[in-house]
Every structure is written in structure tokens, then in C-alpha cells.
Amino acid sequence: MRIAEVVCQLLRVPNVERKTASSQDAVIVRVRTECGLEGIGEADSQPEVVKAIIDAPYSHNIACGLRQLLIGEDPLDITRLWQKMYRGTMYYGRSSVTITAMAAIDMALWDLKGKYFDTPICQLLGGQQHQKIQAYASCLFGRDGAHTRDIARRWSAEGYRAIKFGWEPMGQSLALDLDLVRGAREGIGDGILLIDAGCIWDARTALRRAKAFEKYDLTWLEEPLRADDVAGYRWLRNRSPIPIAGGEQECGRESWRPLIDAHAFDVYQVDLARNGFTEADYIRQRVQEIGAQLCNHCYTSPVTVAASLHWLSTCRDTFLFEDGVDDSPLRHKLTHERVQAVDGWITVPPGPGLGVTLDEDFVDEYLIAESGRETNGDNRCMVESAAQTK
Questions:
Q1: Fewer Cβ in 10 A, N or C end of the chain?
Q2: Is residue 354 part of a domain?
Q3: pLDDT tens-digit profile of 326-346?
Q4: pLDDT on residue 124
Q5: Measuring CA to CA, which residue among 141, 200, 192, 216 is closest to residue 344?
Q6: Are residues 203 and 64 in the same domain?
């Protein structure tokens, strides 16, 4: 069995709003074999940039498009293919969009492998430790505390006993920050409340906010500092009265290693659409070794929701699942299967691979670009020849 096509599809809703929500567009990768078996994956990044990484032609041995590296390969050799993609794109940058593109392909390869063996991915990863996981409704803050309170009441009425609010307008002033958190607590009652600050403070300001928020009984304070401030996170975690969560934007083990080595977080949030199963499995083992907790990050489509469920269900100490509730057709209609919490709990799709299938009519309606159905044989020969003469 060999890879025949790597198809990259870009989808976008008609009216993209100016808000921090990655459920308004999507890049779907489909890996197909010569015998017609297909696996699907997704990257959470800027879709056109991911597409460029996949579509790029051969330049030289360590600057090659991902499709060129994969055509003709055995799709079951997943670890070897990750290593081949990693080496073949060394000049692209080692911990950002290249890894997200690789993650989408990796997700598709695992989906394909599960279908080939007629087995859910969680079984291929070692088996489920959790049959169901409590889900938290993940949403943006309202414009103020009163609006945030109303949003919390809405999702509480839908059965969620855990809710997270994040990003704008938090960070404009102490008064507004307190108003937002107070409103969220009033709306959710005695449920689990999570706050995502959106990388807005320095360490000392974050500590002051954590102390001010302590009376509202937060389960965690997420990403209060800029993402690269590893030393700041370690300093803050050792002093904060509230557990610190973070890591959603990290891509691959080299990006995660400094944070894990520093014990920077209490909760490590791994996005399968930025890491893929191969790297996420490594991260899971490292985080469990240091006695910290794991959670998924997911704010895109049901493809990544399904991937996150398969992975997180294998994590020993998992206790919450991020369930994006953004009112976007890409979140709710891309697959025939609806992958969402029921009465506040969510379960792994039971079918082989990811357990979800794309709604092709929906894909056709929202498709804005596609590439990869035809391959360039001459370029492939050039890559193989260059590799042989190195």
C-alpha cells in the first residue's frame, strides 16, 4: 500500500468576524492510497500558509514540500514519515507552521491506519483510560460582566457544569477584569470556572490578578503571560494561588520540551491540530512523568475534536475536555457525526480511525481552494535522485 495523493482543502465561512476564534476557516488534509483508502486530518493555523508548506515544490534536500516527501511512501510507517518530513523541511523553521502542517498529515495517517486495521485510534495509542470525559463549554467573554453572566447561564442551561471564558476584552483594566470574572461566577453558580487571559500580562501583574481572582474559585488561570516567557511561567506557577494552564500554541516536542523541563504549568494543553498524534504521545509521556495534568486545546472543527478525544482518553490523569461551542457551521456541520458534549459529558467516536466522516456536500459548499489531486512525477524523481546522491 502506497500514498497516491495528499489533498489539501481550504474551507471558510462567508463572513469572517474580527474575533479570536479559529472555527471560521479550516484546512483539511486528505491522504489517499493507491487502493482508495483515505485518512483525514486538520491543522489549526492560517490555512493558506499550511497549504503552501504542503504544496511547495522541491528546492533542496532540507527544503521540500510535504507532498513531495510523501508520495509513494507506505502510510503505515508513521514514525518514519514524521522523521522524513521533519528532516526534509529543516530550513522552514522547527517549531511553528511547518509542524502544524505535519500534524495535519500525521492525523490523517493515523486515521488511515485505524481504518486499515478497523480500529479506533485510541486503541492504537494503547487503549482508553476514560470512557467519557467531563466537557467544559469554551467560549469568549461577553462585552462586560453582565453579558458574560448571561452567556454562562446559557451554557449552564445546556448541561455544562464547567465553562471557560477567554480573551478580549480582558486586560484593559483591573476593574473590567474583575467585572468579567465576577459575572462569569454569578452565571455558572458553583460549577467549574476557567479563565483564559489570552497572553496579556507580565508575571507580576498576572500574580496580582491571580490573587484578586482567588475568591472566585477558579480551577485554572490560562495563559496569563506571553507564550515564550518560560521563566515567567515557572516564577508565576510557584506563587499563584490558582493553578496555571497553558501551551495551546506550542507545536511539536522541541517547542514543548522547555516548558515541561521547567515545570511551567499545572495543566498542559495540547492541540492535536498543531502536534499530531505522534508528537502528542511523546508530550503525554513527558507530562505524566513530572506529575502534571493534561488537557486538550481545540477550537476548530469536529475533525480535531475527534482527534483530541482519542488522544485525551488515553491520558491517565485527564479531568476536563475543551468543547468549543462557537456558533459556526465549521464546528458543527463539517462531519456527518456530531461530536459534542451531551449533559456536560463527551465520549470518543466509536468507529475506526478518527470515527468521523466528512460531509462532502458541506465541503463543496464552503470550499475556497484545493490542491494535490494530481502529482508531479518529474519532481518526485528529482527528489529521489537527490536523496540517492547526497
A1: C
A2: no
A3: 888 998 899 999 999 999 999
A4: 97
A5: 192
A6: no
CA dihedral 176, 224, 306, 28 (to 10 degrees): 90
Count of domains forming the chain = 2
265 and 365 both lie in a single domain: no
Q: H helices of the chain, where?
A: 47-55, 66-70, 78-88, 97-116, 121-124, 145-157, 174-188, 203-213, 230-237, 253-261, 272-289, 302-312, 329-332, 360-366, 377-389
Q: Give the residue, 374 or 127, on which the prediction is more confident.
A: 127
Tens digits of residue pLDDT in 45-66: 999 999 999 999 999 989 999 9
Torsion of CA 100, 319, 110, 70, to 10 degrees: 10
The string of DSSP letters for 21-90 reads: -TTSEEEEEEEEETTS-EEEEEE-S-HHHHHHHHHPPP-BTTB--HHHHHTTS-TT-HHHHHHHHHHHTG
Residue 325 lies in a domain: yes
Domain of residue 58, residue span: 3-119+360-389
Is the same domain home to 112 and 128?
Answer: no
Residues 134 and 114 in one domain: no
Q: Is residue 355 part of a domain?
A: no
CATH code, domain carrying 381: 3.30.390.10
- Co-location of 127 and 83 in the same domain: no
Q: How far apart are CA 242 and CA 240, in angstroms?
A: 5
Number of Cβ within a 10 Å radius of residue 371: 15
Q: How many Å apart are CA 287 and CA 125, to the nearest integer? A: 16
Residue with cell 483564559: 196
Task: Answer for the pair 89, 63: CB distance below 8 angstroms, yes or no.
Answer: yes
Q: Please choose, from the candidates 204, 3, 349, the residue with its C-alpha nearest in 3D space to the C-alpha of residue 212.
A: 204
Q: Respond yes or no on whether the N-terminal peptide bond of residue 243 is cis (omega within 30° of 0).
A: no
Task: Convert the pLDDT of each residue in 248-300 to its tens digit.
Answer: 999 999 999 999 999 999 999 999 999 999 999 999 999 999 999 999 999 88
Residues contacting residue 36 through CB under 8 Å, at least 6 positions apart = none
Give the 3-state secondary structure of residue 180: helix
